[in-house]
Design brief:
By secondary structure, this protein is an alpha+beta fold. The chain is built from two helices and four strands, in the order E-H-E-E-E-H. The longest helix has 11 residues.
């Protein structure tokens, strides 16, 4: 089978940095028709629609200049970046 990839990619749930969680949440729910998760913290929540989800995190996810690089030059995992930003990681992933 030509061009068949060895791994099936189903979905992605991005984490977006927002300036004001309540304003962003109203926009995603009231304007774009997303449904809010039944959980949230002061700085982190999730919205979903049509089987897709988006995590919203108020505040920094890491300085844009370093593009998520740790001091050794390797890439940090998303869960580590969320932890450093004070956000909750719903997957429970540990480094």
């Amino acid at each position: 089978m030509p061009n068949e990839l060895p791994t099936h990619f189903e979905c992605i749930d991005p984490t977006l940095r927002v300036q004001d969680l309540s304003v962003s949440l109203r926009y995603y729910v009231d304007v774009l028709g997303f449904e809010q998760a039944d959980w949230e913290t002061d700085s982190f929540t999730s919205v979903s629609r049509d089987g897709c989800g988006i995590y919203l995190c108020e505040g920094a996810q890491g300085p844009p200049r370093d593009m998520g690089l740790d001091r050794s030059g390797g890439r940090e995992s998303p869960s580590r970046r969320m932890q450093k930003a004070g956000c909750h990681d719903p997957s429970g992933a540990k480094e």
